[in-house]
Design goal:
Layout: H1 2-8, E1 15-20, E2 24-26, E3 30-38, E4 44-60, E5 68-82, E6 86-88, E7 93-101, E8 117-126, E9 132-141, H2 146-156, E10 159-166, E11 175-181, E12 191-196, E13 205-216, E14 223-234, H3 242-256
Parallel strand pairs: 2-9
Antiparallel strand pairs: 1-3, 3-7, 4-5, 4-6, 4-8, 8-9, 10-11, 11-12, 12-13, 13-14
Helix pairs in contact: 2-3
Length: about 260
């Protein structure tokens, strides 16, 4: 009786663990794994097993203007792995296959300085007991095509991402990527930012850009920030290959920044 009481509040209860075959997702592609279930100290009735793909991000209201309101945690998609109730005996072990196709309209999250993150939350619903939960964080990569070419072009140009923000779907679903030059244009520009719409890339990638150059005076505290802002639209043809994307972005930056050099 005492064991049942403890299990009802989570002590000695059944546990669940999602084991993925790979620790990353590619948009539009499937991922697989298994859900491992281990019984607790007492016999328990399991009402269901579900897995949510969740996104965690800073809720940003003004895109490139850094107006961070708070962090958010949203569910993107849910997989009902087991819908029918079953009984799990003490210390009993069960496995269930897991299959999930990543949505194609997500912001990316695959580099060190990205604040937006994704995770799978596996929930074990226990009848008259404290539910068990497991979290597994995953990177999200763009599928082969214009979006991947867009990001790979910055790597070829040796720009380093130092900041990333996401406005969230309620504010247009814009992702802001801030980059710094490490070789090409190093010392000429301090920051280049692109704000784009990851959920709308069928006709290319579009949004707003910002280029900053800091001009220092005689004293270090005297600084004039010269800035160029505007809109951009790289078409599917512009980003057809990594090479095309690299040349297109390079020309774009040079053209837009010529007054700042």
């Amino acid at each position: 009786m005492f064991k049942k009481l403890l299990a009802s509040i989570g002590f000695g209860s059944a546990t669940v663990d999602l084991v993925l075959d790979q620790k990353y997702l590619v948009m539009g592609k499937p991922t697989t794994g298994k859900i491992k279930l281990r019984g607790g100290k007492v016999r328990q009735e399991i009402e269901g097993i579900s897995v949510d793909l969740c996104i965690w991000y800073f809720h940003n209201s003004n895109g490139m203007n850094d107006s961070i309101v708070s962090s958010r945690d949203d569910v993107i998609s849910t997989v009902e792995v087991v819908k029918e109730p079953f009984v799990l005996e003490p210390d009993e072990y069960k496995e269930f296959p897991f299959y999930f196709v990543c949505p194609t309209d997500l912001p990316v999250s695959f580099q060190k300085y990205f604040t937006t993150s994704f995770y799978f939350r596996t929930s074990l619903e226990i009848h008259f007991g404290a539910d068990s939960e497991d979290r597994d964080y995953v990177d999200v990569y763009p599928a082969p095509g214009v979006q991947r070419n867009f990001f790979e072009a910055f790597e070829i140009l040796e720009f380093q991402v130092y900041s990333e923000l996401y406005t969230g779907p309620s504010l247009g679903g814009k992702q802001v990527i801030r980059l710094q030059p490490t070789t090409w244009l190093y010392g000429k520009f301090d920051m280049i930012a692109f704000e784009y719409y990851p959920h709308d890339t069928k006709e290319g990638i579009y949004g707003f850009f910002e280029i900053n150059k800091n001009n220092y005076g005689m004293a270090s505290f005297m600084m004039d920030v010269r800035q160029k802002v505007g809109s951009f639209h790289f078409t599917n043809e512009d980003l057809a290959t990594v090479e095309d994307a690299t040349e297109c972005i390079k020309r774009f930056i040079l053209d837009q920044a010529k007054d700042l050099v």
